[in-house]
Amino acid sequence: MYHFHFGLDEAPFSITPNPAFFYSGDERGEMLAALLYAVEHGEGIVKVTGEVGSGKTMLCRMLDRELPPHIDAIYLVNPSLGPQEVLYAIAAELGLDPGGRRSDEVLRLLNSELIARHAAGRQVVLLVEEAQAMPLETLEEIRLLTNLETAQHKLLQIVLFGQPELDEHLSLPRMRQLSERITHSIFVPPLPLEQVGDFLDFRLRTAGYRGAPLFSREAIRLIAKVSQGIVRRINILADKALLAAYADDSNLVRESHVRRAIRDSNFRRSRFISGWKRFFWWGWFAPSGR
After folding, report:
1. Whether residues 247 and 121 fall in one domain
2. 80-100: string of b/e by CB count within 10 Å (b at 16+)?
3. Which residue among 116, 207, 213, 245 is buried most deeply as judged by most CB within 10 Å?
C-alpha cells in the first residue's frame, strides 16, 4: 500500500524469513559462518537457541541457501511428530517411499540411502525447527540417527533450532545422551538497541529505498525500546509505522507514527535470558566441553 509513496520495490518489513533481507550485523554474519563450518566439519549435533522472533528461522534459511552444492539439506518442521512418525518423515524428505514398512525397515532404508549418498560424495544435514516443542521421545529418536555412520564419518549431521526451553529439556537426566552429542551451541540474542536504526535502514535499502533517513531518531529509539531488540517485533512496528506515515502523507516516520503502531500491536512481555550480552564469539559458538 505504501510502497509507491516511499519509493520501495517490495515490502521491507515482512516477517516471512526472506534470505535477501538477512542482516549480518551484531555478529549474525559470523554466526552463519560458524553454522556452515559446523555442518561441513562437525560430527555431532549443533544447537541454535534464541527467544521467539530473534531470527533463528532466518539463520536456518540462510544456512540452507549457503550450503555447498555437495550438502543436501532436509527439514523437520512439524514438532508434534512421535518417535516412529519422525523416521517416516525423514525418509519422505529424502525422497524415499516408506509406506507399508515397519519402523525398523524404514531405519534400514534410511541407512542404505545415506550410505549411497556418502559413497557419491554427498553429505546430508537435517534441520529441525521448533525443537523445544518436540516430545522428548522424538528428540531421543533423532539422537539415535547419529549412530548411522561409516568407519570414519557420520552419515547424518543434525542442527536443532529452538527456543530456550530446549536447553531446559536437554538438562533433564533422561536427555543426557542427546545433550552429550551436542558439539556446538549458538545463541541468537536480541539486537542491541543501538543497532536497531542500522537494521531498519538495511531493510529499507534492500527493498529499494534510496532517499534520506526515513525514520526519525525519536521513532527509532521508541521502536528499539518497545521491541526490546526482537527482530520480529521490530519488523511489525516498522511496517505499521510506515503505514501510519503514509496515511498522514508524511515522508518521515515520526515518533507519533510509532506510537500509533504500538497501539495497534499486542506484544506481551516476553521472558528474556538475563545477561544475554555476555554471548560473544566463544559464548555463542563454543564446544560443549563434554
Report:
1. no
2. ebebeebbbbbbebbebebee
3. 245
Q: Specify the residue for cell string 543426557.
A: 176
Indicate the residue type of 105: E
How far from chain centre, in Å, is Cα 190? 13
- Which position has the grid cell 527456543? 163
**Residue that is last in its domain, among 131, 154, 188:** 188
Residue 37 lies in a domain: yes
Report the distance separating Cα 88 and Cα 84, nearest Å.
Answer: 7
Residue 151 belongs to domain spanning: 28-188
Q: Is residue 68 part of a domain?
A: yes
pTM (predicted TM-score): 0.88
CB of 184 within 8 A of CB of 288?
yes
Q: What is the pLDDT along the chain (290 residues), one digit of tens a residue?
A: 789 999 999 999 999 999 999 999 989 999 999 999 999 987 789 999 999 999 999 999 999 999 999 999 999 999 999 998 999 999 999 999 988 889 999 999 999 999 999 999 999 999 999 999 999 999 999 999 998 988 788 899 999 999 999 999 999 999 999 999 999 999 999 999 999 999 999 999 999 999 999 999 999 999 999 999 999 999 999 999 999 999 999 999 999 999 999 999 876 444 443 333 333 333 444 444 43
Dihedral-angle region of residue 255 (phi above 0 means left; psi in -120 to 50 means alpha; beta otherwise): alpha
Q: Among 203, 233, 200, which residue's Cα sits nearest to residue 52?
A: 233
C-alpha cell at 206: 534492500
96, 111 contact by CB (below 8 A): no
